[in-house]
Amino acid sequence: MDRLDWTAKWADYTPNKIALTSYDANKSYTYSDLHIYANRLIEKFTTLNLEEGDRIAVLADHGLDYLVLFVACQRMGLVIVPLNYRQSINEISKLVVDCTPSLFIYNNNHKAKAEQLPIQNLKVTSFEVLADYYQNSDYTTTKTFQIKEDNPLFIFYTSGTTGTPKGVIYTNKMLFWNSLNTSMQLGITFRDSTINTLPPYHTSGWNVFVTPLLHKGAHIGMLEKFDAEKILCLLELNKTTLFMALPTMLLMMQKTPVFKKVNLKKLRYIISGGEKVPSELVSFWKNEKNSYIRPGYGLTEAGPSITSLHHKMAELKPNSIGKPNFYLDIKIVNKAGEIVKPNEVGELCIKGDIVTPGYWNNSVRTSTKIKKGWLFTGDFAYSDEEGFLYMKGRKNDMYISGGENIYPQEIEAHLENIKHIKKAVVLSVKDEKWGECGIAFVSSTNKDLSVTGIRTELTKNLVAFKHPKYIFILDDIPLTSLGKVSRKKLNKYLNAIKSQE
């Protein structure tokens, strides 16, 4: 039995334990089911002449069958390419062409979109057809598989909120060490359980809790789409112990009528990140539900379990992303590559077995981001005297106005401290006088809030040269499918305004 084949191990130790539950289909797989179904799927893939290193592009919602595919691909050395089904036909088509898959899998929810993609010359099947086969086949095998730690397991296409998608290679080695980091920080055991509502086309949908809990022989509940009320009820009903949610999701949950009624006493930790985790959010969940939110930091190219803020420090160190996890090294460097002093801003760099070997079909990008084993994240950060880390913003987001380095995240924090402002986002544009200037988008709970009023409040706490040149008040800040701010949509809005000038 291979040491990296966690499913085979748990199928041997606890074969009848429920590994996965779909709350959409009201169906469960035991560890024995998962193990057997994966082997039957391997038999099917063998008839399709799939070989180690081949890519399988997938356009489907997250669920039980995706996990069967995961186990089968890990054993065979195949690479899963989860496609973002929220993207346009044109966007998805480019990814299919780029990853050159040997097989394309879809589920019936996305059949119509799949039929419009350039897959005419590919082997194509659906999860429904595959599931029918491996659930009803009488094929059994005692064969063991060698899982190679350096083999790619995923290609995650990521562009953040802007830019051309880049295929991040995710290996078995990254999977193992990320799982260990996560388990060490949170004390995960086979008694734990989670409910995953995150999509499969992002690393968080796999590697925040799904694969670490699979490693520990724990229980993983699956829900295809985020539903604030339903999630709260399921958390109580299933006595869920661990949950991952972006700040936007938590805000939606606490605003539902169900929030005050549910009992979440079994919920040990809520992991949050992706966007800044407001200290008010941390305090609210602790006071109202005795639930501990643990902010952290991660990115597709590493981990994603990189830093974690202990729950006992969450209110003592507001806005911190915590300290580095166990099995990795970090440094913060200036433009010259020198390590900066405490409270000095620089680029966050990460080294360890949780770092990607590179980008698919993009050696130039790989060489500029990974130098001597260090991943240059493109994120600005600083540490205080006690080693707690704080994000300052994306390197690409920082702009220079009148010779001064300006970090949008700092301005956003000041804007969000103004009464009635729910959310603030600051972008930069070219400016004839200053080189670049800031543009702020804010959403408000008060229709009477004015740009003049906002500027008056900013003057009290923020030096004048950091003030945004333009401020727009929107009904809502547009979000991506993950609940992050969509800077791409804000830039489109900005371009539309410019075209009318």
UniProtKB/TrEMBL annotation:
Keywords, in A-Z order: Ligase
AMP-binding enzyme C-terminal domain mapped to chain residues: 410-484
Domain of life: Bacteria
Classification via Pfam families: AMP-binding, AMP-binding_C
Domain called AMP-dependent synthetase/ligase: residue spans: 9-360
GO molecular function, one term: ligase activity
Keyword Ligase applies: yes
Protein family per UniProt: Belongs to the ATP-dependent AMP-binding enzyme family.
Protein name according to UniProt: Acyl--CoA ligase
Organism of derivation: Winogradskyella marina
